[in-house]
Amino acid sequence: MTQFAEQVRILTSRCEQFRGSEAPDGYPDSLALCIVDSVQSTMVKYPTVEKVLRNYRAYRREHGGDPNKDSAVDLAATFDQLKGHEAWAQRIGNGNRTSTHKGAPLKAYAIEAEATAMIGIEVVTAQDLRTAAEDPDELARVKKEWLKVPGQGPGVTWHYVQMLAGVPGIKPDRMIIRFVANALNIPVKTVNPSFCVEVLTAVADELSMTATALDHAIWNYQRAR
């Protein structure tokens, strides 16, 4: 048995408790909410993300829109209406930044930049993103544009935005990485995000569940701890 196969075996045993778990609904009709949630979700507790989502929904409804069907174009328009990302952060978002580095831009800046980037390559709806995921070359093109935005280079939000749009996957954030490290009894710093995606996708197959459902089950387990 190869080392990878043994790691899959160990993790499958550890994840047996999650068999039958279901994936969250995400936002299959709103790329706008996918973008907001994914960018806001890193390095914070999720209730802060939920507040931004509530604010965005309320703002759109106040202006006659349907946030559950918003495209990247609709999202970008809210920044125009509020005269920029700083005002957007005050009205809808918050003061959270894309990283801990000095001078890192607000997450609101990254949200606007991602909306603009997606419009630029004509991926404006969640369905557009799901369609792109069916073609490896096209998905690579979208990924390249997504990762250009400040703070998104590590790829966590790239995996997450796809999952929220309905593309099955694993979001290799710090909680997922910690779970894998603990299960395999190896140092957290040695666990590569790409390895997490590969090994947990294999585990999901072993458990006959989607990768997204497994990711969410692990995330809830880690959050409870």
TrEMBL record:
<keyword id="KW-0560">Oxidoreductase</keyword>
<protein>
    <submittedName>
        <fullName>Heme peroxidase</fullName>
    </submittedName>
</protein>
<keyword id="KW-0575">Peroxidase</keyword>
<dbReference type="GO" id="GO:0004601">
    <property type="term" value="F:peroxidase activity"/>
</dbReference>
